[in-house]
Amino acid sequence: MARTKKSNRENQDGNFGRSDALEPAHDEQGSPREEDDEHHAAEESDSSEDEVAPRNTIGDVPLEWYKEEEHIGYDISGKKIKKQTRKDRIDSFLAGADDSKSWRKIFDEYNDEEVELTKEEIGIIRRILKGKTPNTEVDPYADYVDWFVWEDKGHPLSNAPEPKRRFIPSKWEHKKVLYHLLQFARGWIKFDKPEEEPPFRLLWDDDSNLADSRRHGLSYIPAPKSKLPGHEESYNPSVEYIPTQEEINSYQLMYEEDRPKFIPRRFESLRSVPAYESALKEGFDRCLDLYLCPRTRKKRLNIDPEALKPKLPSRKDLRPYPTICYLEYRGHIGPVKCISIETSGQWIASGSTDGTVRIWEIETGRCLKVWDVGEAVQHVAWNPLPELPILAISLGQDVLLLNTGLGNDEEQLKVKELLNVAEPVITDDASDSTPTVSWIPYTKYGGIRLKHFKAVSTVEWHRKGDYFTTVVPSGDSRAVLLHQLSKKSSHNPFKKLHGLPVSAVFHPTRSIFFVATKKHVRVYDLVKTKLIKKLEAGVREISSISIHPGGDNVIVGSKEGKMCWFDMDLSSQPYKTLKIHPKDITNVAFHRSYPLFASCSDDCTAYVFHGMVYSDLNQNPLIVPLEILRGHTSSNGRGVLDCKFHPRQPWLFTAGADSVIKLYCH
Amino acid sequence: MPKHYRPPGKKKEGNAARYITRTKAVHYLQTSLSSFRKLCILKGIFPREPKKKVEGNHKTYYHMKDIAFLAHDPLIEKFRDIRAHKRKIKKALAKKNRDQANRLLSQQPKYKLDRLILERYPTFVDALRDLDDCLTMVHLFAALPAVEGERIQVERIHSCRRLSHQWQAFISRTHKLRKTFISVKGIYYQAEVEGQKITWLTPHALQQVLTDDVDFNVMLTFLEFYEALLGFVNFKLYHSINLNYPPILDPRLEALAAELYALSRYVATSYGAQPKNVQAIDSSQSDQTDAGKNETRPDESELRLAQLQHQLPANEPGALMQMVEDATSKEDDDDDETKECKYLFKDMKFFLSREVPRESLLFVIPAFGGVVSWHGDGSPFSEADEDIMYQIVDRPVQGHLFLSREYIQPQWVYDCVNARMILPTEPYAVGRIPPPHLSPFVDNEVEGYVPEYAETIKRLKASAKEQVLPLPGAGSDELDNSQNLLVEGIIDRAEAIEAEEKKRKLSMLEKQYRDELNMEFKGINYSASLPNRGSSDDNVVEEDTTTTNLEQIAEDAQNRSKISMSRKKRKIYEAMQISKERKKANVDLLKERKKKAEEQGRTR
Q1: What are the pLDDT digits (tens) for B128-180?
Q2: What chain A residue is nearest to B219 in terms of C-alpha separation?
Q3: Residue A9, H or E segment
Q4: By the 8 A CB rule, do B502 and B520 touch?
């Protein structure tokens, strides 16, 4: 290329220099130019071919203008100078393969000819490529010849006298040397390399005293060791450790955290085991665990679960208690809502929602009496005095006091006299339009009817058999009423009552009165007529209450299936809360003489507990669950509706929603 | 007043003062997070869980004392020095001051970890107790490809390989190996050193994959510590058997990648545990060596000489004395288990084919007293040796068979080791699928499921002990076991059954009573009704109810005890029951799978 350009320029020169001559540049032309321009001559003298005139006569115009043409200008005789036919690539390749010199050949597009470079020219090109001068003879680093002569000229460039510092040793250099000397002397700089200490030594001597060999710093919590591999991690596990395809597929449906990390596989031989692909990852995870995971000491309970169970006295020692169903009293056609046992233990009364009250003989199961009272019975209660066989029945707005007709003639006389109301007695303690209670003779079965202003839920007798209480849950300030049978009078002891009353009971020995509202149990002194205590059950809704015959302990059943035992001497909080039933507790009951108590619930079961109360105040009551009594069937979502103990025997009566009364004996 | 109100002028106290979050700790120490990490790893400081997380739940908390412990460590200053030094080098390079840079490079500040190790593990036993992770990591890195230009320096990998071989040589020669297990992840080994059980995992000797999802900085920091720890532990162990620690090895064997063998030979020559037959091997080897090998002989003997000179203090009395010593004192030192392990493969010669994992078997077989050679250069005896008892091969078909030896798959060795007895070799013969390989780390009794092969091994062991041939079917001991189990079960249920029976009797009585009553009502004569009462319907119903009753009674008993528990205990109890049930479900799953597999096998 260099050559073409050169010749190109030369051509221009020629054209401009002698435009009128119009003769091709020949060898003769070179010589006059050499004379003109020394520089040109020097440049052009290196190759003899340069003197050859260009074939091309189109001048210095872009070649592409002639791309379409077959010629490249005209010769002196005016004929077209034809382009040579271009060789195609295969031809040029073949030519190259045949000719060993072909690498030196260059196609000159301007002149449309192939030029072969000489050895010298290639040498020049190489030198240029290396960045050296093209000519070998040129010495770029020739010695400098100072042709200006200094001597005897009389006028140096600077005439200043030489400064002193040129003649004395440098102070700073001296200081530096001194410093280095100091460094050597002090051993700061060492020329010999420090000795390589052996990397390991005996670190733990046997005779190191133990006091010194304590770990410093905070208490060290060693990292838990990695889990040791089980059978399933084997390269060749038993067949049973390999999950089936369905199981593997089902892993995909799991959450990612739950998915098993490792799926066992089986290899027929050791040579077919591949490298474990996540070896590095697992090593890294372990590292992360070691330095990133907070460590705490966790106490792991490594005990037998049975050891958690409290040591309870054997059930055998706590006998007798009811265990099996001995008798069934059938006859009611609706759910039996309530039962009550006569104090002598011979008779049992039951009230049902079918509107009947029945009296049964306990021992035989014989139904003695059926009273059709016409309305669903809420509650029945025997008079606690054996000589007054009166039954109180609550139904709707009424409370009936009926003569059961039991006992001898003398007693009957007395009862009849008691139950005789000449004219209706109406309490008018309030100025309301409806009287709170009115005592009306009940002609149907010969007794007294106490007509309340609203529906009555429970009726409970005082231990002396003269007083009884009724609860009117929706009665607001007249919810709990006290009645005296002998005087046929009623009165409302509470001017104001907090909460919705559920049940009211008398203390078995003292003049104390318990009112169970939905949240609390309020304990009143009847003599002083004031609140003594408020027991907080902490349950959602109290459904029933029962007082221990000793009078200091109370059990409360709730609608969430919890039973609370209160020790009144201890605190107003429950001494023990037992979560027993999955459904509502309908009733709880203490036995009068045996240390037994029971609860019954809508889940068709009744629990019997041993509840021993000690006279020693320092000893807490002992509560042992004894037996779960089943047998009732559920109807309408209700199970066992009432339970009562026999007054003398360790027997339990349960009344079910399946209209059966059952007697459980020991 | 806000919840954590602190009056002005009053110091922080409680958890707020005692714990510090990670970011605050880094600020407190005035370091970068990466150097904090490094410090924590080297010093063994870990986050702790405060009772109350004052700064928030999703933060990492360090104890203030731990951080103070870090702050007082000279290492933190050293790290700062290194950082400053690196900057100096960078600066010199930027100024094209090569001399200065080179000088600085040669003077890089270094730190040593021996102080840290002693601080973290004041006694040798402490170090052994924490050696599991260390060994696993070092073995893992020893198996990584030593490729120039990778993220891990080749020297590190070589040093890991060396350390792991040194450890293995010690374990093997002192017969401390107890359990082995080939898993998919690699081979697990368990050794017992000074009463500490040390378990580690070596990857399979295959090309390991370098993944991108790990942070090599963290791993290399751990490795740095572990290398140092293992070095010191090895030193102590070698010291305890009177060996110089960095062992000088036969470079010829080292070059042949039989470093472990070289090491164990080194240990054997100086420990004195070299069995007699090694001399025999040497002689046999010399017989077999061809001319080419004879040339290398002088070099080797020179090396041996050098070794011996090196070992002079330990080796002075000569081989005979040592043999005597070995016979007297060493035997007494060893506990029963070590003795058992030592003589498991005694007087047995093994030969390893090309395709079996050589390093592992070279480690395991000598650890249990066997003599082993392999296919390849530098092996002590060749395949043609007549004394070879077992040849370990892992190929579908073995071409040339020597009748004097048995050809077995490698699993046999591992199973023998775990069972501590020589198992029959037929199931492990060439080309067969070996019996399942079971983990020795599982307590089958606790797990509740005993694989079939474990039973077989147990029976074999029992028979070997009593010299009674095992019964092919159900062994007598098995029967006893089941009886024992039954007895236990009976004790549990006795009460329930007793109660149940009583109930049944009573209910019978009750029924009878009721029937009689009914009859009375109906006015039927008692004697007339007698034949009717034996009707079968009643009995069937009775049978049906008893089974349900039994469950009911058990449940009732459960409920009763649950009621009397406190809430906390009840919750724990329930959690325990859940875990128990989960375990049982696992076992049931295994049993079911087993049953299915058996059925399939039968149909085929």
Answers
A1: 999 999 999 999 999 988 777 667 888 999 899 889 989 998 998 888 999 99
A2: A284
A3: helix A2-17
A4: no
The b-or-e profile of B29-55 (16+ CB within 10 A means b, else e) is bebeeebbbbbbbbbbbbbbebeeebb
ipTM of predicted complex: 0.78
Q: Which residue of A has its CA nearest to B144?
A: A280
Q: How far apart are CA B493 and CA B555, in angstroms?
A: 12
Catalogue all structural domains in chain B, each as residue range(s) with its CATH number.
15-72 (1.10.1660), 78-111 (no CATH), 115-326 (no CATH), 334-441 (3.40.50.10190)
Whether A277 maps to a domain, the answer reads no
Say yes or no for a CB contact (<8 Å) between A198 and B234.
no
Q: Which of A46, A79, A100 is the C-terminal boundary of a domain?
A: A100
Q: Per-residue pLDDT for B475 more than 50? A: no
pLDDT at B3: 61
Find which of B455, B564, B566, B583 to mutate to test the A interface (most A CBs within 10 Å of its CB): B564
Q: Which residue of B lies nearest to A197 if distances are taken between CA atoms?
A: B112
Query: In terms of C-beta distances under 8 Å and separation of at least 24 residues, what long-range contacts does B71-78 make, across chains too?
Result: B71/B28, B71/B29, B73/B39, B73/B43, B75/B39, B75/B42, B75/B43, B75/B111, B75/B116, B76/B29, B76/B31, B76/B35, B76/B39, B78/B109, B78/B111
What are the average pLDDT values for consecutive 10-residue runs of chain A, which has 666 residues?
42 40 40 42 46 73 84 84 80 82 82 86 92 86 81 71 90 94 87 82 73 73 91 91 89 88 89 90 93 88 79 81 87 90 88 89 87 88 86 88 82 82 68 72 82 88 89 85 86 82 90 90 88 88 91 90 88 88 90 90 90 84 87 87 90 90 88
Q: What is the count of structural domains for chain A?
A: 2
Please give the full DSSP string across A446-507, using - where no structure is assigned: TEEEEEESS---EEEE-TTSSEEEEE-TT-GGGSEEEEETTTTEEE---S---S-EEEEEE-
User: At which of A100, A117, A145 does a domain end?
Assistant: A100
State the best of A210, A287, A327, A597 to mutate against chain B, taking most chain B CBs within 10 Å: A287
The whole-angstrom separation of Cα A273 and Cα A265 is: 10
Q: Which residues of B touch A308 (CB under 8 A)?
A: 565, 569, 572-573, 576
Strand, coil or helix: B461: helix
Res. B257 pLDDT band, cuts 50 70 90: low
Collapsing DSSP to helix, strand or coil, A62 comes out as coil
Domain that holds residue A647: 315-665
Specify the CATH number for the domain of residue A531: 2.130.10.10
Compute the nearest-CA separation of A337 from chain B (Å): 25
Tokens of A374: 């016409």
Best of B46, B220, B225 to disrupt the A interface (most A CBs within 10 Å) is B46
User: Does residue A173 belong to any structural domain of this protein?
Assistant: no
Residues 550-579 of A with CB under 8 A from B: 578-579
Question: What is the nearest CA distance from A51 to chain B, expressed in angstroms?
Answer: 53
